[in-house]
Amino acid sequence: MMPNLVLYDTETAQIRDYPRADDQPVVGLDPRYVVLRVVREPRPDPGPDQQVSETRTVDLAAGEWQWSWVIEELPPPPSPGPEYAGFYAGLLASQVYGAVVATPGKSGDQAAAMTVFLGAIQDALNGRENQPAFQQAIWFLLGQLQLSAEGLAELQGLMDAHHLTGSYSLFPLPVAESINQSWTDAAGVEWVVVQARDEDGQFMADDPATPQRESLTWERVG
Fold it and tell me: Which of 9-13, 89-93, 186-190 is modeled with the greatest confidence?
């Protein structure tokens, strides 16, 4: 059975059990203890994107130990990371890759560009992800393939489907100079500069030995 009364120790700020089961006054109670009435609020029903946590507060003026509830919004689910294996398989089955194999003329340059690109993907699959190298491989591939609007849309779709566009752009991004700086690439994708974070979610600091602003990064909008 839940208690109706408790003792508050004014010297240690701790809650103690009430020494009687019938809630009657305690004779000779040490003056360090204050008798508090336990007040319990009914638990609210959270919404679909909310959670409920319990709080317990001592209110000496009211003579109460208050059991209350706080409704909080659930944190958003973490964004999925890049799926390099799925992207690799999709790229090999794509018209973009087929064009490299079938197109004469510049096919040697195209094949070299695709080899560099596939190598960057393999590095990522083997745990050696290097975003700058991957970005350079994308630009090299685009420069050699000279993709049509349909080919660019297919490559964009593959990157979207496998969560690569949050980290990589199909086009060279401008220098990130300030928070909320915005830019729209040639494919109509909007980007904005945000505060960069490391793997632990902590804000990154700039390295004074380099001209790069490591504390800023481009993020896709939407």
Answer: 9-13
**φ and ψ at residue 161, rounded to 5 degrees:** -65, -25
**Rounded-to-integer distance, Cα 87 and Cα 74, Å:** 31
**DSSP assignment of 141-208:** HHHHH---HHHHHHHHHHHHHTT-TTT--SSPPPP--STT-EEE-TTS-EEEEEE-B-TTSPBP---T
Residue 5 to residue 115: CA distance in whole angstroms: 75
pTM: 0.49
* CA distances in angstroms from 206 to 176, 203, 217, listed in the order given: 12, 10, 11
Residues 220 and 168: their CA atoms lie apart, in Å, by 9
